[in-house]
Request: fold
Amino acid sequence: MALLVLTFINTGGAIVMGLVSLIFFQPTAESLRKSKIDMAKSISVFKEIGFNEMADLLSRLQVMSEILSHNFLASTSLNILFSMLGCFSAVLMYKRNILGFHAYIIYSFLAAGSIYFFVSPANVPTVILITNLLISLVFVLLYARHLKWLRKEA
Reply:
């Protein structure tokens, strides 16, 4: 039950935050320009002190952020849809429908890889993908441990 609550919190929060972002926080040219300047300053500082790996990471995050900002409506809408799939899969699992587990696996892959619909893999730091996949894997494995509960009659 705790897994379902965590899934509802995660997916529900993502849906709400996505909708709020669509309504109130669409990026403007000015905010993009300010963000780019701030990131350039940070990259410069890291290069000066010899943290080239961190500077490279920030450079890739900057490119990724710019691409996602230019595709804000599409990327945010897609993430809302994926979160709705995750929420729906949790509802199915709550109702002890095994299809919810399979839908959750699909949701996990889609959510972890959704950035690649818009950003080239060369511009996505590997740490982002690994982190998303590890979190998804942990949840899928924890749900898999409770498949007997899903198969019982309600």
About this structure: The two ends are 14 Å apart (CA to CA). The CA atoms of residues 108 and 136 lie 6 Å apart. The chain has one domain: 2-23+31-151.
